[in-house]
Amino acid sequence: MNLRRAIKSDLPALLEIHNDAVKSLAAIWTDALETLEDRENWFDKRTAGGFPIIIAENSQGEILGYGSYGPFREKSGYDKTLEHSVYIRPEAQGKGAGSALLQVLIVLAKQDQYHVLIGAIDSENKGSIRLHERYGFKVTGELPQVGFKFGRWLDLTLMTLILNDDEAPVAYIHK
Description:
Elements: E1 2-5, H1 11-24, H2 36-48, E2 53-57, E3 63-71, E4 81-88, H3 97-111, E5 116-122, H4 126-134, E6 138-149, E7 152-162
Parallel strand pairs: 4-5
Antiparallel strand pairs: 1-2, 2-3, 3-4, 5-7, 6-7
GO molecular function, one term: acyltransferase activity, transferring groups other than amino-acyl groups
EC number: 2.3.1.-
Organism: Pseudovibrio axinellae
């Protein structure tokens, strides 16, 4: 398996993986399929913000999945906290791509000097919860019935990984 940074020519495959998750999984809480232009806008926003989009591909160059992270929330007090996501093609799930992508995202977040990495996971997705636990994430919140899809309420499990033992940044007031 090869891991690398995504490039624009990867976007059709990323769109396919994303839209497959929209149609078949409770991982993305929307029923709206995206267009290639939507994925291009997402890609441009992520890369302009300095956030990685990592591809996992097999030895034939087929994209198995992708992972990325971005801001957790927009207020400046969250500047050291990220939320990540990893999506894998159905036929590649359970074969190591998700694990490899999560490992790389953790390493990159540490290198970029972030403090906390958050996973917001559909509570029924026990495989993703176990994967995150293997890498040190702890369940730090359970939000019952905060979403809906497929005609049912969905619970959200928040998992966090503290990336370093840095002291809090110096307080400052924005003017």
